[in-house]
Structure formats: C-alpha cells, structure tokens
Design goal:
9 strands; alpha/beta; globular; about 45% helix
C-alpha cells in the first residue's frame, strides 16, 4: 500500500486552494474583510500541511494574498468573541490548534513562499513568519497584534521565530507594542527577502516556487529539515548532522544526475530521488 497522498485533486472548503503544475497556491477567502482566519480555516490548513508531508505531487507551496491583502488575523466575531465563553481547557485546545498549524508548516518538506501584500497581521503575520521565504510589496503592513487585544506577544511561536528573523530588540519592540512594521523596515530587517510591485508579486512567488520545484526536492527537504532542527543544536552537533544529511543526499540519483549533466555540459533534470 502506498503512503503517498495526491493533493492535486484536493478541494478546500474554508480557504482558496489551487495547483499550478507542482506548486500548491493557497490564499484566505473573504477579501472584503481582508481575509480573516476562522476556526475552520485554522484546522483545515493544519490538516492540509500535515497531508503535504506525504504528497509527492506537490513540490513547493505559495501562500499568497487575495484582493490586495494577505490576512487580517483571527476573526473578531468568529474567534475572539466565542473564546470569551470557553473555559481554560477549551482555550488551551484552541491555542494548541493554532500552534499546530505552524508546526505543520515547519514539518512539511516543501518550501513555503509567502507573497505578502497589504494587511498581514496577527495569525496572518505568523503564517508569513513560518514560511521559508517571504516576498512583500511596498504597501505590506505587518503587525503582531496580540498585545493590542490584551494578550501576550508569545503566540504561535512568535517569541522563538521573530527574533531569529529580525533580531531580538526589533522583535521585542514589535511584540510589546503591536505596532506595524513597514514594508521598508521588513526588507531592511530581513523579514522580507525582497519587495516586489503588487501587480507582480504572485507571479514572482510562483516563478520562484517553480524554480524550487524543478530542483533537487529531496535536497530541499533536507535543507528545510536542517534549518529547523539546527536551532537547538551546538555548532559541533550541527556540523555532524549536516555531514550525515549530505551523505544521505549523495546517495540520491539527483546527485548523479547533476554530475552527469555537468560532464555533458547540460542542465540537470532533477527528479527528487
């Protein structure tokens, strides 16, 4: 019995999903409300990223904007209001579910590219942060709003990931104040890999995703694994882990394909094995 999952035929019920070749494209719905997240979309996105671990037909993921905005965070009426009626056990169930989305994004082997236009706040900012590569537009407005609703800034892994992306002091300011990080700050601080014109950002993200999908995808999986695992390793442990990871990659057919193509003065055609 095969353990693989075919995701090209997947039909999402709480967000937008389409497949462009070997690239999955996700965006949140309800652009008239700047694409809020609901209980349903949290859970379904978590499950989709978990399934992507076993999807051989998807080689990269693009999380894009919709209607000029990325995500307005947790819906005030659909999430924040109902949370006020939950007991501690119910609240912890919810906060663990939101964190499980981030863990699923980190665990899936495909590189994830976020294309951020307009509003990108709260849980939406965390989705962008959990992506491997982030493109922004000059009008991108990113904010970690948790203190603005009376909560702590430590939500969905923010205190672990944001300092690693932009530095401790900058992260502390954003997480304490909940203020908006401008697109220019985001690019200068390293949150965004680069800024792209709004009308070009989705095409730019897709082009990058297709480039990655055509590459040595087993090697990409190993790269993503090491990027995540080496957070908690000493340098000696990291060097040894990378030695083992690279030795594994040297056993793949893609390694030989690259060598044969180099000898023949051709471009390699990788197959991900």
């Amino acid at each position: 019995m095969s353990n693989t999952t075919n995701m090209k035929d997947y039909r999402a019920s709480s967000f937008n999903w389409r497949v462009d070749g070997e690239v999955a494209v996700i965006s949140l719905s309800r652009p008239e409300r700047k694409n809020p997240i609901t209980f349903e979309s949290y859970a379904e996105m978590r499950d989709v990223f978990r399934r992507l671990t076993y999807a051989d037909d998807i080689k990269a993921v693009v999380f894009t904007s919709n209607g000029g905005n990325f995500c307005s965070g947790g819906d005030v009426h659909d999430i924040i209001g109902p949370l006020l009626d939950r007991d501690m056990k119910g609240l912890l169930t919810f906060t663990r579910m939101t964190g499980d989305l981030i863990k699923a994004m980190h665990a899936c082997p495909q590189p994830i590219i976020s294309a951020v236009d307009g509003v990108c706040v709260g849980a939406g900012a965390m989705i962008a942060l959990a992506s491997d590569i982030r493109l922004g537009t000059p009008r991108a407005k990113t904010a970690f709003l948790f203190t603005r609703v009376g909560l702590a800034g430590c939500d969905m892994g923010a205190c672990a990931m944001l300092p690693r992306a932009i530095g401790q002091g900058r992260a502390a300011e954003l997480l304490y104040t909940g203020r908006t990080m401008t697109a220019e700050e985001g690019e200068h601080w390293g949150f965004f890999n680069r800024l792209v014109a709004p009308e070009q950002i989705e095409a730019e993200a897709l082009a990058l995703a297709h480039r990655l999908a055509a590459g040595p995808t087993f090697g990409h999986m190993m790269t993503k694994t090491m990027l995540n695992q080496e957070w908690s390793m000493s340098l000696e442990q990291a060097i040894e882990a990378e030695a083992q990871a690279q030795a594994i990659c040297m056993q793949t057919k893609d390694f030989k394909r690259a060598y044969d193509a180099f000898v023949a003065k051709e471009l390699p055609k990788f197959a991900g094995n």
